[in-house]
């Protein structure tokens, strides 16, 4: 694993410590993988490979890679840095909003979460004014491609255990209300009552 800060100058975490930390983390994952494969069997049974066969050998490959990374990291000079703190701050400034965005999707839906993500990037990283940020984040048109299983099956025939489709049915009114346009993939899909969209959200092909 090579870092951006191989030069001695600059201020940041030691590349040697980062490489050793990554090797230790992959080693821990290796131990968990191999340990989990042993109780369920890692050999070859009458019916073929047992449940732990492939995880066990993948774990062995990870173990070899971890040992190699650790051996490669030890000789690295302590003065070499992995990356400067300013560079890492740039990475964190993108990672944190994205992680929050992913965490909010199950609760707020993808549309509200996306508007918040766009707004945070524009204001925090782009330093745009509040009027421009709000106009772009909230006013971006939503164009939906409408096709497939969700579009053709009748609501009454949707299995109760089909969690993703039940979620789609629950959120479909909001989709119909908020979308600016629906792109239908065929004349069959375009005909009602496939979507029964409001007049303000036209269907086009």
Instruction: State which percent range the strand residues make up.
Output: 5-15%
Average predicted confidence as pLDDT: 80
- Summed up, the helix count is 7
Main sheet attributes: strand count, strand direction, barrel closure: 3 strands, parallel
| Percent range of helical residues | 55-70%
Q: Residue ranges: pLDDT <50 for 5 or more in a row?
A: 196-205
Number of domains: 3
Based on CA atoms alone, the radius of gyration comes out at 26 Å
3D shape: flat
Q: Order of helices and strands, N to C?
A: HEEHHHEHHEHE
What does this structure look like?
The protein has 3 domains: 59 residues; 56 residues, no CATH class; 65 residues, no CATH class. It is 60% helix and 7% strand. The strands form 2 sheets. It has a 3-stranded parallel β-sheet with strand order 3-4-5. A two-stranded antiparallel ribbon has the order 1-2. Strand 1 and strand 2 form a beta hairpin. Helix 3 crosses helix 4. It starts with 14 loop residues before the first helix and ends with a strand.
Features of this protein?
3 domains; 3-stranded parallel β-sheet; 205 residues; disordered C terminus; 60% helix; 7% strand; two-stranded antiparallel sheet; mainly alpha
Topology at a glance:
Blueprint lengths: L14 H26 L3 E2 L2 E2 L3 H21 L11 H41 L4 H10 L3 E4 L2 H4 L10 H16 L2 E4 L2 H4 L12 E2 L1
Parallel strand pairs: 3-4, 4-5
Antiparallel strand pairs: 1-2
Helix pairs in contact: 1-2, 3-4
